[in-house]
Amino acid sequence: MKSDIIISGVGGQGILSIAGITGLAALANNMYLKQSEVHGMSQRGGDVQSHFRLSDKPIASDLIPFGKADLIISIEPMEALRYLPWLSNSGWVVTNSVPVINIPNYPEVDRIIGEIKKVKNSIILDADTVAREAGSVKAGNVVILGAASPHIDIPFSDMEQAVETFFKKKGNDIVALNLKALRAGRKLSQNLK
Amino acid sequence: MNNKLLLGDEAIAQAALDAGLSGMFAYPGTPSTEIMEYIQASEQAAIRKVHRTWSANEKTAMEMALGMSYSGKRAMVAMKHVGLNVAADAFINSALTGVNGGLVVVSADDPSMHSSQNEQDSRFYAKFASVPCFEPSNQQEAYNMVFDAFEISEKYRLPVLYRITTRLAHSRAATQLRLPMEEKQLQLPQDPLQFVLLPVIARKKYRTLLETSETLRYENRLGKYNVFRDGKNREMGIIACGIAYNYLIENLKDRDDNFPILKITTYPVSTDTVKDITDRCHSVLVLEEGAPMIEESLRGVLDEGIRVYGRLDGTVPHDGELNPSIVAKSLGIGTPRGKHVSPLVKNRPPSFCKGCGHADMFNALNEAIGTYPDGRVFSDIGCYTLGALPPYNSIISCVDMGASVTMAVGAAEAGLFPSVCVIGDSTFTHSGMTGLLDAVIRNSPVTVIISDNSTTGMTGGQDSHATGRLREICKGIGVDAEHIREIVPLQKNHEDNVRIMQEEIRYNGVSVIIAARECIQTAAKRKKQSSNLA
Ligand SMILES: Cc1ncc(C[n+]2csc(CCOP(=O)(O)OP(=O)(O)O)c2C)c(N)n1
Is A119 in Cβ contact with B348 (below 8 Å)? Predict the structure, then answer.
């Protein structure tokens, strides 16, 4: 069993939290994992991505080869498109539909969404709205993770546990909010299927 | 057993702590920064009172570590690859003095220049200095090898170079930890002249160093990490160094090509080690992250020996970072590729944050210098280097830390007017101060703008040595107090700021303008922390 995942978004959107939560859940399942992060220059408002690899066997490369990713989890729609060369033919794209427009030449959002829909397996959702309903727009990243969770080989209860552990330091309210976001995301993507 | 999810950088830091480290010395630089940051946040380090304050630059870091080693304790230095250029004088000479307590120098290379000015390969520095070098391929090795690095350093009384690259530095994996060792006691060297590199002494020491570096080829603590795995294929063997080995295994794991494979993760490499491959195979493919160092030494100048494939013959691209797909291609293995990137996808170039003082400083400077068609603004390395891009187009250089001041002096002496420079506060205390002294001594007509955001912004907001000290430093260096001006780069002060800049540009001597406004990122972080405390 293996899941090779590209997590993408714009600096500051919380892709490292997605990786952190999934990492905790993977460790609880005694799986091997490698997670390559982007630090430094490209952080602020730039495009950021993380290669996240899970397996029941030891993992050699920190980077996912082209055409081998099982899943792209993106918190921003244009960023989902940026990593398509890595996606396998049978891979899934799970992405937020809400754009981060911080460049003057950002394309029309409808065309971006149209392009994502051309991928064989895609789930596109307005994570910001779902997160706002759960209590804070900041939990958009966790909504997306919830929506992607049916495609990651980790029991959902372990994902929930990982969310608890990950946010514990920030207090019970934040834990509750993020659990709500995770569950809402999951439910939505199961209904979309 | 204690299992922790660690970045390569963090694995090195944790290992150093577990190996009884007494002091960590560093100047920030991607991708090395997290080594010091991990130690600064570590409870273990706090309890043991491990020294862990940022240094002014990489040279002072290296020298303080050498002093700690002199006293018999274990020290580590960490920097990005170009930092080793700054520390090189101390580093190379420390190979001659030798060490007392174990001394490990971590240099983090950045092939493909994700956040750097060049992609130099630090392994050459180990060769240059004739010291051993470790190049771990994964997080567990990054952890384990630190213990051997300290042991080797103490056994041969040599500094040890620890080379990593961006992917290992910034990639996480579960790492098994060992039980922590005790810190070393203060113990001074027996030979009072050990660290005195007078020519008569240095000559002897150099001969000893050359002998030691030969012996090192057969040291098992190094050699055990260079692992040979035989295979039936006699057409081609493969040598893979450091992280390149992972990309190789990624490609070969489900195939039966049966290549004999030599994994190299320590240097110097012995002839016997390489012969495992070259005696068996008609050709050899060399995969190394960075420059073709092993490849070049296999080929030699004549290149008449065994057929070698690698970066020099184009089997692997000559520049840039490796990845599994590049390695697949070099092996002739076809790789599927997903869909092409749609032309809709646009780049998101880095830009100043909303509310950044550098931006308002450049707006004022552009106006102040706008009336002089020949005016040029030299600059330096930091967030403010973004002033080279539109809409500012303000600066014309970014070479190495501190070069803005001295290049402006040189250009002024060539007759350029106005000759202005922009330097960040941390860069100024790293390497700008000595250049300013040159300017003062020569009374150069230059205008030095220190864009002071009270932090080392580019690398994530580490403390800056300059904070609260800039005026006094400049005065102490000898800049006329009347020509040390302080401004606050805000839109509402624009007119005043332009006027002050123009006045100082017209002044026929050294002037310094300190444009001070706290970095918006660190200000936000500070507010968050203080509200958490409240
Ligand atoms: C010799 C060397 N050491 C470290 C670095 C990494 N580095 C680049 S910019 C920078 C920080 C500069 O801080 P400052 O001058 O205060 O400017 P800011 O980014 O805060 O605007 C550092 C540490 C480098 N490029 N070269």
Answer: no
Question: What residue ranges of chain B have pLDDT lower than 50?
Answer: 1
pLDDT at A158: 96
Residue whose CA is at the smallest distance from ligand 1 atom 6: B29
Tokens of B277: 């491959």
> What pLDDT, in 10s, does the model give residues A121-153?
999 999 999 999 999 999 999 999 999 999 999
Ligand 1 environment, Cβ below 6 A: B 27-29, 58, 80, 82-83, 86, 381-384, 401, 424-427, 453, 455-459, 464
Residue type, position B465, single letter: H
Instruction: pLDDT band for A8, please (50, 70, 90 cuts).
Output: very high
pLDDT computed for residue B531 by the predictor: 74
Report the nearest-CA residue for atom 13 of ligand 1: B456
Range of the domain at A49: 2-192
Check residue B400 and give its pLDDT: 98
- How far apart CA B474 and CA B493 sit, in angstroms, is 23
| Nearest CA distance, A193 vs chain B (angstrom) | 23
Place of tokens 């187009």: B393
Q: Which helix (H) or strand (E) holds B327?
A: helix B324-330
- Cα-based distances in Å from B122 to B83, B111, B240, B288: 10, 11, 17, 13
Q: Do the Cβ atoms of B70 and B98 come closer than 8 Å?
A: no
Work out the burial of residue A30: count CB atoms within 10 Å of its CB; fewer than 13 is exposed, 13-18 middle, 19 or more buried.
Answer: exposed
Note whether A57 and A85 are within 8 A (CB): no
Q: How many A from CA of B299 to the centre of ligand 1?
A: 38
- Atom number in ligand 1 closest to CA B28: 23
Predicted local distance difference test score (pLDDT) of residue A43:
60
pLDDT of res. B445? 98
Residue whose token pair is 């444009």: B515
Q: Domains in chain B and their CATH numbers?
A: 2-222 (3.40.50.970), 227-331 (3.40.50.920), 357-522 (3.40.50.970)
- Closest alpha carbon within chain B to A120: B339
- The terminus-to-terminus CA distance of chain A in angstroms comes to 23
* CA–CA min distance A18, chain B (Å): 14
Longest CA–CA span in chain B (Å) reads 78
- Residue A103 pLDDT greater than 70, yes or no: yes
ipTM of the complex: 0.94
CA distance A16 to A32: 18
SS3 for B353-391 is CCCCHHHHHHHHHHHHHCCCCCCEEEECCCHHHHHHCCC
Report the pLDDT value the prediction gives residue B316, as an integer from 0 to 100: 98
> Is B265 in contact with B136 (CB distance < 8 Å)?
yes
How much of chain A is helix, strand and coil, in % rounded to 5?
45, 25, 30
**Distance to chain B for A183, nearest Cα, Å:** 26
Looking at the 3D structure of chain A, how many domains does it have? Answer: 1
Flag whether pLDDT at A47 surpasses 70: yes
Inter-chain contacts counted by CB atoms under 8 A, chains A and B: 151
Residue A39, pLDDT above cutoff 90: no
- Taking the whole predicted model, whether its pTM rises above 0.95 is answered as yes
Which band of pLDDT confidence, cut at 50, 70 and 90, is reported for residue A191?
A: confident
Domain with residue A60: its CATH number is 3.40.920.10
pLDDT recorded at residue B351: 86
Chain-chain contact of B250 with A87 (C-beta, under 8 angstroms): no
Q: What is the model's pLDDT at position B529? A: 81
Residue nearest to atom 4 of ligand 1 (CA): B29
Mutate to test the interface with B, among A29, A33, A62 (most CBs of B within 10 A): A62
For A72, name the nearest residue in chain B, comparing CA atoms only: B338
Per-residue pLDDT, A42? 52
